[in-house]
Amino acid sequence: MSRERLVAIAKRNIEHQLAGTVPLADAVTRLPATNYFDPERWKREIDLIFKRLPLALALTAEMREPNSYKAIDVAGVPVLLWRDHEGEVGAFVNMCSHRGSLLVDEGHGSGRRITCPYHAWTYDQRGDLVGVFRERDVGELDRACLGLTRLPVAERAGLIWCVLAPEAPIDIDVYLGEYGEMLGYLRLAEMHHYGTRVVDGPNWKIAFDGYVDFYHLPILHRNTFGEAISPDAVFHPLGPHQRITGPRPEWAKLAELPEAQWSDADLTAGVWSTFPDGSIAGFDLGGVKVYQVARIFPGPTPEESVSHLDFVSLGEPTDDFRQLVDKQIEFLVNVVRDEDYATGLKIQRTVRTGAKQELVFGRNEGGAQHVHRWIDRVLAAPDDGLDALFRSAAR
Q: In terms of Cα–Cα distance, which of 278, 261, 280 is closest to 270?
């Protein structure tokens, strides 16, 4: 069914390409400017969105080998993702059960056991406490109650998804639905990891708005991507997620071929957006696709965010190709930091003035409209209503 859905999206793109049209949202929408800095709303977004929904915290390519792990801090929660010796990924709060020390610093590592750097309590890949330094002097302990705090985790489509709450009310397959199967066509699980960059930015919604917006491309990015790039976009929502495509001559060429000859590359072009924080965009590099996988997380205050940008490709990691990818990474990071987020930080300053009570999202900005509708829906949904919300949206 996933390929059928991709074909249906391609047909929609072809129709608009041949007709020279762009689908528009039903109406202009407005958003309270306070949504971008109000501390109470920000706290609700962290608790009800970022601590209830699955977040893509790593790529398979980052920690493919058995015994590898990744530590990352998200929305104030230190997370340890750990692939065991049999290849299964577990997720834990990166916190020793003894006195709360961080077990490992942010980054990557490998090992069958992890020992706390403070008092040398040791944990295995199941999160069980298996060693206590000078236990005879510590006193009687129930090790079964002193393991690491587990977090729900799943690996789908080359991404490792985790929920920051131990008792998660949502199922990853319900959450992703058919969108997860469609993401599999990108072949992220087979790719090589070429690097990670972390970029600070404005409120997470200001940052994320830019990833679902083609309207600004020929203006803000005229000196990098160029003025010829189109501001037009076709939004293809599926549940809370969406894929965004733009005008491409290749769409018209597809119309001349039988559907069976439509390649996966043709069927997966565009920007893939995962709610509430992810964006996957491919860039051609000498005939090989390099993907930027961005995840935007709330920062320590309502007016800050932290973006993790990972770069992967099916291209073999030869010295020559690595040099090409490194240049592309530098280019893309400069675009994000010096154009998108530099502008976003200026927006952060202006919305605080109170000069405008609302911000406007035009009919051609359906991607951002879709995101903000879903933010409001999730904020209004009780824990026991999330599954039903996503099930009904996927129909």
A: 280
| Pair of tokens at residue 337 | 């930091």
> How far are the Cα atoms of 113, 117, 316 from residue 122, in angstroms, in the given order?
7, 10, 37
Amino acid (1-letter code) at residue 72 = I
pLDDT at 362: 98
pLDDT at 1 (0 to 100): 63
Q: Are 223 and 342 in contact (CB under 8 A)?
A: no
Percentages (nearest 5) of helix, strand, coil residues in the chain? 35, 25, 35
What topology is assigned to 2-50+182-382 in CATH?
A: Naphthalene 1,2-dioxygenase Alpha Subunit; Chain A, domain 1 (3.90.380)
Give the chain's radius of gyration (CA, Å): 22
- 51 and 43 Cβ atoms separated by less than 8 Å: no
pLDDT for position 169: 73
Q: What distance in Å separates the CA atoms of residue 80 and residue 69, rounded to the nearest whole number? A: 7
In the predicted structure, residue 238 carries a pLDDT above the cut 70: yes
